[in-house]
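Dear colleagues,

For the upcoming journal club I promised to circulate an example of a predicted protein-ligand complex. I picked one with magnesium ion because it came up in last month's discussion. The inputs are reproduced below in full, followed by the predicted structure.
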Amino acid sequence: MRKIKISESTEEIVVGNIFCVGRNYAEHAKEMESDVPVNPMIFIKPSSSIISDGEKIIFPKISKLLHHEVELVIVIGKTARHIPASQAKNHILGYAVGLDMTLRDLQNEAKKHGTPWTIAKGFDTSAPISEIIRTEKIKDPQNLTIACKVNGVIRQNVSTSEMIFKVDKLIEYISSIFTLEAGDLIFTGTPAGVGAVQPGDIVEAELTGYTRISLPVIAA
Ligand code: MG
C-alpha cells in the first residue's frame, strides 16, 4: 500500500489505481513518431510502482534504455463514474508532479508486436511522485509549468496549456469507462523532451512554484 503526503498538512492519501495518458502533447507525439489519438490513450501502472522524493529509481536489468517523462498528476478526491467535464473539478483533491519512467526499448518492442506496455511502464519505482498540492491552491491547472532536469540540466519545461485533452475532459472520458475512486491518480501525459537516464544520474521533476522531487537513478 503506497501513500502520498498532502502538502502543508499531516494527512496522507492511499494510492488507488494509476491511470496514465499517452500522447497528450502534440510535440511529444511527434518525437515518438506517433499520431495524435482521437480519444485519450489510457494505460495503467500498478500502485506498487509509486515512490517519493529522495527514494531511488531502480534501472531494471531487463532494459538498456530508461527514459524520464515529467507529467502533471491529478489526484481524485471523490469516488464516482460518468463525471461530466463540467463537474470534474468537484472530484479533484489536488495535483502533483510525477515521472512516468519508461523502459523505452521494451515499449518499442511492445509497440512493434502489439503486446501490452505493462512491464515497460509499470516496473517497480516507475512512478516517482511529489506531495499533493490541494486544488484550492491552484488557480488554473491548464496554466502550470512542469519541468524535468537531469543532473541540473533542463530536459523538459512546458506549460500544461499545451495538453491536447484537458484535465476536465480526461476525467469525463476515464470515468465513462472506469469508476474513479478517491486516491486514484491520473498521469496526464508528457510533453516533448523525453530522454535517457543512467545509473548515477539525479532526476528532478517540478511543478514550478509549487513543489519538486529529486531522485537518484541506481542500477538494479
Ligand atoms: Mg507518459
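Two points we might discuss: The radius of gyration is 16 Å. The first strand starts at residue 3 and ends at 5.

See you all on Thursday,
B. R.
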